[in-house]
């Protein structure tokens, strides 16, 4: 994909872990806004839980502010097709540890950000992510310990690996209208990873059943991204 010509935000996404489960389409479809349909794989749809470190968040041509621009974030997302024929991501939730970032994202793009108490600790190839929402009565959250392994050789990566990690558009609803936002980043350097511990109820908080079975796992050191301007989907 060509680089976004006009970016409203530049970000670094670091120490990313991708966890994905397959869900029946009927579990996901009712949670999507009008105009979006699940992007299916063999009559199933993928749901991803992605914890990472957001870093160097800034508008173009402006410096980042150290405390404000670096914080843990965790996304719960699925993959959709829009009425414009495009494909992309729809977020069920985005947890972040900085209240100003939550407020701005909700106000600007109506993204379902939640202010959460979060941490990310790394030691060698081990990473531990933790999160718990402040405002929800039961404190929906997660704990994940994962060990990163060797890089995936490119011949071992199949279409589904690329599909789950090379999405360049998100959809959201602003003022009752469906909009899309393009995102540019280079290809992920994907590594093998092993889940050592996982507890989470973000899926049930989003209205999904608990996932079944072990997730498909990838990890990556990260990428630099450019976030484009929102556009009305016609």
TrEMBL record:
Transmembrane segments: none annotated. PANTHER family: DUF2071 DOMAIN-CONTAINING PROTEIN (PTHR39186:SF1), DUF2071 FAMILY PROTEIN (PTHR39186). It comes from Actinoplanes xinjiangensis. InterPro entries: ADC_dom_sf, DUF2071. This is DUF2071 domain-containing protein.
């Amino acid at each position: 994909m060509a680089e976004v010509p006009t970016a409203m935000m530049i970000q670094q996404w670091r120490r990313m872990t991708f966890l994905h489960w397959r869900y029946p389409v009927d579990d996901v479809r009712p949670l999507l806004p009008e105009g979006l349909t699940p992007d299916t794989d063999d009559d199933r749809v993928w749901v991803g839980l992605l914890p990472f470190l957001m870093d160097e968040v800034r508008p173009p041509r402006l410096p980042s502010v150290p405390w404000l621009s670096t914080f843990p974030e965790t996304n719960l997302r699925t993959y959709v097709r829009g009425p414009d024929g495009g494909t992309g991501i729809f977020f069920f939730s985005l947890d972040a540890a900085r209240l100003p970032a939550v407020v701005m994202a909700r106000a600007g793009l109506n993204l379902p950000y939640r202010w959460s108490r979060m941490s990310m600790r790394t030691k060698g190839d081990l990473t531990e992510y933790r999160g718990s929402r402040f405002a929800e009565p039961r404190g929906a959250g997660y704990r994940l310990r994962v060990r990163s392994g060797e890089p995936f050789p490119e011949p071992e990566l199949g279409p589904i690996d690329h599909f789950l990690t090379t999405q360049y558009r998100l959809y959201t609803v602003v003022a009752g209208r469906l909009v899309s936002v393009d995102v540019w980043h280079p290809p992920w350097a994907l590594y093998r990873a092993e889940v050592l511990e996982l507890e989470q109820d973000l899926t049930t908080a989003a209205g999904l059943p608990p996932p079944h079975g072990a997730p498909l796992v990838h990890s990556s050191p990260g990428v630099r991204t450019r976030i484009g301007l929102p556009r009305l989907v016609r």
